Amino acid sequence: MARSTILVTATRILLPLMLLFAFYIFVRGHNDPGGGFIGGLIVATAFSLYGIAHGMGAARKLLRLHSRTLIGIGLLCVITSGFLAPLVVGDLPFLTALWGTAVWPAIGKLSTPLLFDTGVFLGVVGVTSMIIFTLAEEG
Amino acid sequence: MTIPTKMLILLPILLSFLAAIINILAWNHRRWQRIVTLVATTLNLLVALRIFMVVYGQGPQAVQASNWPAPFGITIVADLFSAIMVVITALMGLTVAIYALADITPQREALGYHPLYHTLLMGIYGSFLTGDIFNLYVWFEVMLISSFVLIGLGGDRGQLEGSFKYVTINLISSAIFLAAAGLTYGVTGTLNMADLRGALAQVPGGFATTLGMMFLLAFGIKAGLFPLYGWLPAAYHTPPAAISAIFAGMLTKVGVYALIRVFTLLFVQEVAYTHSLILMAAAGLTMVIGVFGAATRSEFRRILSFHIISQIGYMIMGLAIFSPLALAGAIFYIIHHIIVKTNLFLVSGVVNWMQGSYDLKKLGGLYKTNPGLGVLFLIPALSLAGIPPLSGFWAKFVLVRAGLEAGDYAIVAAALFVSVLTLYSMMKIWQFVFWQKAPEGVVERGHGEGENGRFFRLLPIIILATCTIIIGLYAGFFFDVAQQAANQLLDPTQYLNVVLQR
Hints:
The complex is a heterodimer of chains A (139) and B (502).
Chain A: H1 5-28, H2 36-54, H3 56-63, H4 67-89, E1 99-104, E2 108-111, H5 112-138
Helix pairs in contact in A: 1-2, 2-3, 2-5, 4-5
Chain B: H1 5-8, H2 11-25, H3 30-58, E1 61-65, E2 74-78, H4 80-103, H5 106-110, H6 113-129, H7 133-152, H8 157-188, H9 193-202, H10 205-223, H11 231-235, H12 241-265, H13 271-296, H14 300-321, H15 324-355, H16 366-369, H17 371-385, H18 391-406, H19 409-435, H20 451-473, H21 475-490, H22 493-500
Antiparallel strand pairs in B: 1-2
Helix pairs in contact in B: 2-3, 2-6, 3-4, 4-6, 4-12, 4-15, 4-20, 6-7, 7-8, 7-12, 8-10, 10-12, 12-14, 12-15, 13-14, 13-19, 14-15, 14-18, 14-19, 15-17, 15-18, 15-20, 15-21, 17-19, 17-20, 18-19, 18-20
């Protein structure tokens, strides 16, 4: 398939914008529509756009980590966020939310729900990119 | 080291989850995956035994994960019935994992056997421990999606055909389950099972029973109840023995567990109709049709698959009679059945490994070359048929006695008749596979290719056969536990109190 110059040029601008937008959606998800799931989908869309412009092999390289590893790390974040309350604070049930006090720019207070959502985010990026790469390469 | 109860009853789920995660991260490191699988399943057995001891000693335990009070939080609850099921699952998880070391080919391991095995176990533990109908649906899905992949893993022609039927029927069942859960929420405004018990009592009788029948349909498909069992014998004989053994042992029993749970805790408004009529008829027909199916087949694992169906009938019979003794019998039967059935599937795998077939007509003469294996087959086979003093005898004895006490003579007659036919088809397998001379051209394999394979295949069978004998010899203790579990099911005051923190 011939590379389209228009698509390649547009992707150069769109890819960082989409990643930034995904981060925005991810962070605002705590109180407004958004969150790790949607953010992850947008990231996967960004990578598939890059894949369409430059070929899926290049998109895989850009992602650095194997999709499967992303899923693993995502799930690890999820289970860690659950274990923090009973292990660090003690005498709380699994998954109890813990909140920090300091307010950070852009993300607000650090918390275990944020870590949980990061896990969801990574998991969705992993699963969706794996599906897209596999389908695109077979077709 | 003591683990707080809040953590303890979640640990079977979490350990399986953690093992699955590590196995995903260690995807291409077969050696590590095997070590993780063995360590996780061993730890889970210890955890499960601890849970059992705590629940046996102190009554039902509950934890609200994420610390929101019931009925809003994620309720995890272990009463004695759940605890028994968790212990059995852990035992099967470990023994089948050992067997899989020899049975699952490196190709299947490379396709992700290990992480899927743990997510399957996670789904099963979750189903047994959850206290919420919707979470039960989610755990069912976790279990089913893993099983969908496992049953087709490796992609043999037969496997794909079997998995197609399996997936289709189970998706229909899930859709019915989801619809039933949605309607229940619409009518009562809650899905927490302890909370639902009170809420359903307020609902006009007919509607609650209708919901109950929808759940019966959904769980009946999963449990392989008559007339919804068609997918089971079409699928269970296709994957490798290690996979079909864990399926045969556990998956239908999750359906039976769910049936027993909802028809003791939730839908007890019209027992005369739901239990004494519908469930009783389903139980009797399941028993008889299943055993007829088995009697006419001549493929090792197909015979065993039909026997699963027939045995499900016994468990539902206990639920249908709905007396403390009958429920205790059903629980005892589940304990006995899971161990025996898993073991028989493992034995069929060994026979296939030695003579290269599951077809009875292409097998023979194994008693002469492997008398030990013959004995190891006879223990679960005779137990399945109900020969004293093995575990199956006591299980059937309790059920038959409960049936006689309740005056349900028809189902008792069916149960006894089915026992005889079960014995017949076990003897058929014995006759063809072990006793008579091998047909022309059968080549004995499996001696030269490494003693390790032999060890890993036979060790789990020996462990499970020992369990069968122990249950038979110490039936008093096991029956006592089953009876206490049945009493907790019929009088769930403790369960309700511990979940709703009253």
